[in-house]
From TrEMBL:
Keyword Hydrolase among record annotations: yes
Pfam families reported for this sequence: Acetyltransf_1, Acetyltransf_7, Glyco_hydro_3
Signal peptide: none
Protein name (Swiss-Prot/TrEMBL): Putative beta-N-acetylglucosaminidase
Organism: Mollisia scopiformis (Conifer needle endophyte fungus)
Length: 871
């Protein structure tokens, strides 16, 4: 960190640093006096654009160039982050004809192919970059598990966490590869609420374990893949804080964006060190409870790096001044500010090293780009349009002039309703575009159009058209939130049955369960014209529907059973094991002993299995997960993994040791693989990373082996052994007390002490070598030197070593603090191997070695190597 609390910043320096932590918006198509003041005087580092700031391609480019020039003239050391919410679909700030309309998240989810999400994100990045925009507050990583959610809905790919994770990952990749900073939102998950945080503070009453199983799944995946920024949500989550506090305690009602407990999950548990930005502090989820200015201080204190104030100059300046004063008063530390500034600077260095003006000549490519992207979008819309159900014989309909078709759609209620502050329509507006009829007329010019409105009776002449129609096409938009649409739709379904075709133009939930009355049901996931084009193509038979409903189903139910301990199920797991892991054979008796360990919890499906163990601490170990080749790609591995995760979490809670502290792939007791073998397929490793296991960052571990049938050490090492003032002897009962006293003093918290205690309990003292100081006769070093009979039940794969049943293990090598740095450990191993050779052992394994170069001096060579994967 460049600055510390010991450095006193001048007022100018403090203002420059605090300004970099603010995201502000403004009104107008040219830089207003307000935004110029915020950039010049208050040194803000990020500007967010909305639909209100976009009029044309040339205007938008001129605007961003002007903003960057203002920052440069004001002495900013780095350029501005110029951000936007270009989620596509329902939330599109740069609209046609300035940019092509691209599919939103749930339309992408309905295609079932995350490659489409990558294509759209790549196209989005291309467009944004061409206009001088370098950051996108997208994609949505919320799991839309609440159908009545008023703020997320189709902005999410699905109600399934794994699906959301796949599509968000693809979008992040497309944006970042295209030179745009992606910002996933809204952590820790806004999908399970029926309250809009723009107008109130939603509360999600889930436990941390429930969040782990759903909301946090997509975030975990993109965090392990290195997403550069994340936006926090204005939602209260009582379950993530102090469990001892009453639910009515004030701290239980603090939104995650201002809550240190939420940011702690980000930083400490999920190991995220990217930039954290709050959602807009002018939303009522913060403004109405804490106030925008105070919320800015709370967000930064909680651990956010940037705070967003989008609309009002007085609130923007007030928040900046409040943060500056909080630093001066010691309420906010300089270290906190400096750490956040460093993250912002790092992000800017990565993405906006060049802020030179984009030439107007680049606008020559806009039309061609939009045409190309619109064609690509049309192909994806076609893949997303979903025929949820249909009555035989109606679809597709013909454009026969003797047949009467009537289109009924909700119109905008006459003036009287309010508009949101940013001057844009709400995402939950209950009406559809007037131009839908133009799309239908391209197929059949005779179609009549009826616009119905809330509280306004349908005129008699329109009722007559409906009654005489051979086919009715009824468009809805969020009918689950709009009773008048729901009522009319059900009434039409009751009267006209299979003659009625319903197109849900936004939320797919409108008539998802009304199978009896709504017999023909199409969903398109967004009320855009390109999406409706695809619906019309399906209705008139131009194309077949290809989409698959991404909500309303938890996916196929897999019959996952808990291992019952029977010989039959052990044999079944053994058979599957040898198909899945042919290079790692294990005998049925040995596998059965491992399965019957008291701390094991194992799960079986006809197509796969999962072995897991619960360790004190509490810690969870996924020792092995295997799926037969013919069952892969059907969600069985995910189901097995989720089952193990849930059970291990429940065991931790029931143990009284608190929540599960870690969940790792691998097993040490019993020992299968300590971690994941590096020669496992990349697909297997991707499976783990795609489900939230962190990409390994620590050094790999190795199992080493050497033959001792001839020499046990190089001559120079043997010469060193002879010179050291040490004596050596196998362990004995008389040495037990001194050994264990020194072991516990030297190696607190290491589980290997239990191995010494176990050997003593078995009267196997000769399986340990002890080093003594030759002058004082005190113990100064110890190592296990176990033969095959001792380790065969715990180490599954030793029979794969060259000497098989004549392989021994050196482990738990420890040297007393007083004797370290003198070569005692090296010499101790030589004496241990001499003893093992005398006992008929032909080869020695040293397992789980992370130190490189030490054992190699004794002639050991790498036999297996592993990577660590931890949740």
């Amino acid at each position: 960190m460049a600055e510390t609390a010991s450095i006193a910043w001048t007022d100018e320096e403090l203002r420059a640093k605090v300004g970099q932590l603010f995201v502000v918006g403004f009104h107008g198509h040219v830089p207003s006096d307000d935004i110029k003041t915020l950039i010049k005087v208050h040194k803000v580092g990020t500007v967010i654009l909305f639909l209100r700031n976009v009029a044309s391609a040339s205007q938008l480019l001129e605007l961003t160039n002007s903003l960057q020039a203002t920052a440069k003239d004001a002495g900013h050391q780095q350029g501005l982050l110029i951000a936007i919410d270009q989620e596509n679909g329902l939330v599109t700030r740069i609209k046609s004809p300035v940019a092509a309309q691209l599919p939103g998240s749930m339309a992408l989810g309905a295609t079932g192919d995350a490659k489409n999400a990558y294509k759209v994100a790549t196209a989005t990045a291309e467009t944004l970059k061409s206009f001088g925009i370098n950051m996108n507050y997208a994609p949505i990583a919320d799991v839309n598990s609440e159908p009545k959610n008023p703020v997320i809905g189709v902005r999410s790919p699905s109600d399934d966490p794994e699906t959301v994770a796949r599509f968000v990952s693809a979008q992040v990749k497309g944006l970042s590869e295209g030179g745009i900073v992606p910002c996933v939102k809204h952590f820790p998950g806004h999908g399970d609420t029926a309250v809009d945080s723009h107008y109130g503070l939603p509360v999600i009453s889930k436990t941390k374990a429930e969040l782990d199983a759903c909301e946090l799944v997509p975030f975990r995946r993109v965090f392990v893949e290195g997403v550069d920024s994340v936006m926090t949500a204005h939602i209260a989550m009582p379950g993530i804080g102090d469990a001892s506090l009453d639910d009515d305690h004030p701290s239980k009602k603090v939104p995650a964006s201002l809550n240190p407990d939420a940011i702690k999950i980000l930083r400490e548990e999920l190991k995220y060190d990217g930039m954290v930005v709050s959602d807009c502090l002018e939303m009522d989820g913060v403004r109405a409870t804490f106030g925008t200015e105070e919320g800015a201080v709370m967000a930064l204190k909680a651990g956010s790096d940037c705070v967003m104030v989008c609309h009002t100059m007085s609130a923007q300046v007030g928040a900046i001044e409040r943060v500056i004063q909080a630093v001066k008063d010691g309420e906010l530390s300089q270290d906190t500010i400096a750490a956040s500034v460093k993250r912002v600077e790092t992000l800017k260095t990565k993405y906006i090293a060049d802020t030179a003006p984009i030439p107007n000549s680049s606008l020559e490519h806009v039309e061609a780009r939009n045409t190309r992207q619109a064609k690509m979008a049309a192909e994806i819309y076609a893949k997303s349009t979903t025929l949820v159900r249909s009555e035989n014989g109606l679809l597709p309909i013909s454009s026969n002039c003797n047949k009467k078709t009537v289109f009924i759609s909700p119109g905008k209620t006459p003036p009287g309703g309010g508009a949101v502050e940013i001057g844009e329509e709400k995402t939950r507006e209950p009406y559809t575009p007037d131009s839908y009829i133009d799309v239908l007329h391209a197929h059949d010019p005779t179609i009549a159009h009826i616009r119905f409105r809330d509280g306004i009776e349908m005129p008699p002449e329109e009722e007559k058209l409906v009654l005489e129609a051979d086919t009715l096409i009824f468009a809805t938009r969020n009918a689950t939130q709009s009773p008048y649409q729901k009522k009319l739709g059900l009434s039409l379904g009751e009267k006209f049955g299979k003659k009625l075709i319903v197109v849900a133009t936004c939320d797919p939930y409108d008539f998802l369960v009304e199978n009896d009355l709504i017999k023909n049901y199409i969903t398109i996931y967004e009320p855009t014209i390109p999406a409706f084009n695809s619906a019309a193509d399906v209705i008139f038979g131009v194309m077949k529907p290809m989409g698959k409903l991404p909500v309303g189903s938890s996916g196929p139910e897999h019959d996952i059973k808990t291992f019952d301990g029977s010989d039959e199920e052990a044999k079944k797991i053994s058979e599957m094991w040898h198909v899945v892991f042919p290079k790692w054979p294990i005998s049925l008796p040995r596998l059965t002993k491992i399965l019957l360990r008291s701390h094991g919890r194992h799960y079986i499906h006809e197509g796969g299995f999962c072995l897991s163990f619960f360790m004190d601490g509490p810690h969870g170990k996924i020792a092995s997960l295997g799926v037969l080749p013919e069952y892969r790609g059907k969600g069985i591995g995910t189901a097995l993994l989720k089952k193990a995760q849930r059970e291990l979490t429940s065991m931790a809670e029931a143990s009284g040791q608190g929540p599960l502290k870690s969940l790792a792939i691998g097993s040490d007791s019993p020992r299968l693989w300590c971690e994941v073998p590096v020669d496992f397929s990349q697909a297997a490793k991707d499976f783990l990373m795609h489900r939230g296991f962190r990409h390994p960052t620590k050094p790999t571990a190795q199992d080493l082996y050497r033959d001792i049938t001839k020499d046990v050490a190089p001559p120079e090492i043997l010469a060193k052994v002879a010179k050291l003032p040490l004596k050596f002897s196998p362990w004995s009962a008389e040495l037990y007390e001194e050994t264990m006293t020194k072991q516990r003093a030297n190696f607190k918290g290491l589980s290997w002490i239990g191995a010494y205690e176990q050997l003593a309990a078995w009267n196997q003292y000769h399986q340990v070598m002890v080093a003594f100081d030759a002058e004082t006769n005190s113990q100064v070093g110890w190592t296990l030197m176990c033969d095959y009979s001792i380790i065969s039940n715990n180490f599954a794969f030793l029979p794969l070593m060259p000497s098989k049943e004549k392989t021994g293990l050196i482990a738990c090598v420890g040297v007393d603090e007083s004797a370290r740095g003198k070569g005692v450990g090296l010499v101790l191993m030589v004496k241990a191997m001499e003893n093992m050779k005398e006992r008929g052992i032909e080869g020695v394994c040293v397992d789980w070695v992370v130190i490189k170069g030490f054992y190699e001096r004794l002639g050991f060579q790498r036999y297996w190597e592993y990577q660590g994967f931890e949740w």
